[in-house]
Amino acid sequence: MLGPVILAASRSDAMRRLVSAAPVTKPVVERFIAGETVDEVVPVVKHLTDGGLEVSLDVVGEDITTPERSTAARDAYLELIERLEGLGLGERAEMSVKLSLFGQALPGGHELALANVRPVVEAAARIGTTVTLDAEDHTTLDSMFAIHEELRKDFPETGCVIQAYLFRTEDDARRLAAAGSRVRIVKGAYKEPASVAYQDKAETDKAYVRILKILMEGEGYPMIGSHDPRLIAITQELARRAGRKLHEYEFQMLYGIRGEEQARLAAEGHRVRVYTAYGTDWYGYFMRRLAEKPANLLFFARSLITKN
After folding, report:
1. Does residue 303 lie within any of the structural domains?
2. Which domain, by its residues, includes 239?
3. What residue stretches are annotated with the Proline dehydrogenase domain (predicted)?
4. What is the mean pLDDT of each run of 10 residues along the chain (308 residues)?
5. What is the domain count for the chain?
6. One of 134, 172, 205, 281 is an active-site residue; which one?
């Protein structure tokens, strides 16, 4: 029951002011959001990559209500890419985008989102990197996968995300595990109905392993989005059985979560990419993460105590 309450709070200006002014908010935001501007996030990118890590950058903001705001979101990514070009990091710094930010939920949103994301993908390719399309709630996925397929005609390295808790995902994984594909697997955090998604954590974990096996045995490039030590160990074993070298898959973790584990895996030779969110709309991003999965309240509370 907490989810709808938190989601309503994410749209409340009064609650925004209250939460933003609370003393406990600032350290939480600074821990999980890498800054509000490109000038603030670039040093973070340099610090992470100098430490042997890679990054996937997300300009936060999802509640787009006008085509003008979707265009502004596109321009924010283009500004980011322009700044990344000067760092010369290539594929070590990619972008993650939510198509809702590019207007997917607006009237004519499929075409609008495709029109907005294409120049971002083109600009990323120009500096030697790529874009991954994030997965959102299940009602948006057919559109996301169709846009992904369209973009891959010209930019085959464009990635996408699949969510283990959805019943459809094993079939999606089989379709996507082809040569040249880049697929990030996550457990899934949106509040989905029992008709489309597993509601039990154990069932989700089992599905994650089944899907991971499909990806590892396929011909694409798996990207493992998890902080779970058990799933990380299973990933390493499945990769070994599939005969994959360390550069033929990667781990992905959130900025501010399990930093020591990120460094440990990178020191072992694994590719480790840090999902790094930034932007002025941190309030909406933060509250939506809690609304998607209220158990995150405890998770973030624990994170204030320990950084790993």
Report:
1. no
2. 34-278
3. 45-299
4. 52 58 63 89 97 96 85 97 96 97 96 98 98 96 98 98 98 96 93 94 96 98 96 98 97 92 97 94 67 56 53
5. 1
6. 134
